[in-house]
Amino acid sequence: MKNTNKKALLFFIDGKQFETFEQFITGAVLKNMAGIPLNVKLYLKVQEGYQPDLIENDETVDLARTDIEHFYVEEKLNFTINGEPFFSYEQYISAEKLRALGKIPLEDDLFQKVPEPWEDELIVAGRKVDLALPGKENFVSKPFEVVILVNTRRKPWLKRTINFEEVVILAFGSYDPNPQKVYTVNYSGGPEPKPEGSMVKGSVVNVKDKMNFDVSATNQS
Fold this sequence. Notes:
Blueprint: E1 9-13, E2 16-20, E3 24-26, H1 27-34, E4 42-44, E5 53-55, E6 60-62, E7 69-72, E8 77-81, E9 84-88, E10 92-94, H2 95-102, E11 108-112, E12 121-122, E13 128-130, E14 137-143, E15 146-150, E16 153-157, E17 161-163, H3 164-172, E18 181-188, E19 197-199, E20 204-206, E21 212-219
Parallel strand pairs: 1-7, 8-14, 15-21
Antiparallel strand pairs: 1-2, 3-6, 4-5, 4-7, 8-9, 10-13, 11-12, 11-14, 15-16, 17-20, 18-19, 18-21
């Protein structure tokens, strides 16, 4: 009787080990297993002194040959996040993927490093960064912090939004829920699309560095 107990076939892609029970496998399947885009060139290492084999997407490779096969991508794009090295097979990477790779909290800002004396560039949500520009791209995260002006007094603020009650507390040290106490809050110098306006109880606005709040309180008789 024919022995059908096959052993798993081991192979490597960019140094990472994979295994399969399929003897023949296409370049497209190899790329899918390793998360490599189909438009990226995949090579098979051969004996030293010979040119590596370019594996096309529809080309079939025999994994049951004597040696363990090693595949690799030559054109990876290297970058760092907070000093930790990463690479990408694709030219463009999203802010969301950078945050996921670097495990960056949503409340922190993400910046692309720029040579001094220029300021680092803020990477906002939804943005895609080109990793194929000259040099290696470096990204850093920083805790969100701005200074807002409340009745002309500078107040550090660590959240991206502020609500009506929080503004009042910054102005007077406490918030009085008594309906006889009437607070008026106006703001200016805020972010688009509404950089200025007024706030009422329960309202929330996005904050921006040097944003100004004018707060007053009156007692109704």
